[in-house]
Design brief:
Length: about 450
Amino acid sequence: MVQPANLLFRIYLRTIHSLAFYPTLISLGFLLAGLLNIAIEYQPWLMALKAHLDIGLVRNADNARLILGTLVGGVMSLMVFSFSMVMVVLNNASAALSPRVVPGLISSKGHQKTLGFYLGTIVYALLLITTIEQGNSERVPSLGVLVTLGLGIACLGLFVDFIRSISLSIQVEHILNNLYVTTLEKLDSNTRKLLECQDSPSWPADEGWATVDARRSGYFKELNTSALNELLVDNDLRMVVLIHRGFFVMAGHPLFKLDREVDEALSEQLRDCFDFFVEQYASSHYVFGCKHISEIAVKALSPGINDPGTAITAIDMLAVLFSKRMELPDLDVSPLPDGPPRLFFFELSLDQLLQLIFGPLRTYGSCDPQVLTSLLQAFKNLLYQQPRAHHQADLVRHARSVVETAAVHIRNRRDREEINGMIERFNQAAPLSPPALKPLKIEND
């Protein structure tokens, strides 16, 4: 049975990422403002005030109707054009970047607020038109017309800002930077969350714990941690989630473990806290942000795009994000304010994350010496972050994969010399004996 708290949690997640979220809220606000305007428009105190103010106030019903009708038509044209521009941007982003970035662009709050302001202005003006009585000069909503004129001018300013924002939205550098900033914020929030724990968290000894399987299939993306923690505290349980964010779960796959056996009713309540959906939002988890950046880079390396510069920029950004990831343990927790955490999440190890994010770049950029050199440069820079021993071993392992790829696909002498120069600098950053990487062989002329 679906719990009301989890149902509201799912509705909330889908609502905040919907294109209609802010337009609906703003339109409702303008609707209430229009009703308030109608309620006070013909109050005696306001009528007396308007009698002494002539600047900007319309006294004629036909003029008021003409002004409001013109504003409605003009703002509606702006709104239709703006929606069309949004669709063009989404289509271009899907074709030139990655389909996975489209949900993030749709949930852009700036575009939603602009469209909501347009729609709210139309609703406000239409409400005022319904109050105008033909031939009755005493019932002219002159204050409302003045306010609507101001809203129309504001719409023109927002339209200019919208065009500027749209022009930025189709630039790959802007999208990459937004993904980078969002992912970095998620990593920083994970760091702060772990600092809130009383002790440094570690994966509990879960051997012998009761395993609970999934009952439905889908991509695991979110978890209602507040409701889940409440259930764990009330029943004195501890839980470890066995899958990472973005993992495709089949019915019957182990979903989580509990430190003791529970009845089926409680198991179903715990399962209900898991949310499965297809979209990936960088604001949900840092892995999604890293995947989006990687997919944009892979798309840039395709023959149809042929933009290695974007791929190199993405690699540099990912190197910074991985440096933040190395500061975190290979698990996540949901801290409690008055005790040790009871909920533990499985996180991808650095080795798995490097394979997931850098693996496709190494494959699709295998014939581009600049891309391979940038990958080695990223691994070298990460070695200078003083990683833990097992992280250093992971970095060396993936750097060797890049060198092996270069040995197969890079045949040009000058390109091999460039890669060997980077290999030498990498070995200086990882002072191992024998050297971590062997240089590529260069045949004599």
